[in-house]
User: Which sequence fits this backbone?
């Protein structure tokens, strides 16, 4: 009997996609936090001409 049954393949793919989504969401959150930090920094330190 093969280990690569439909059930096992689906379970593996679901797990893989869940992990990929978690990584993607973490990256998006990091970018949003960085934008917020930059925005606050720029408000507190106006450009000097």
Assistant:
């Amino acid at each position: 009997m093969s280990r690569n049954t439909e059930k096992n393949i689906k379970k593996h793919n679901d797990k893989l996609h869940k992990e990929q989504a978690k990584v993607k969401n973490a990256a998006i959150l990091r970018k949003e936090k960085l934008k917020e930090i930059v925005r606050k920094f720029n408000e507190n330190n106006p450009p000097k001409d």
In short: The radius of gyration is 21 Å.
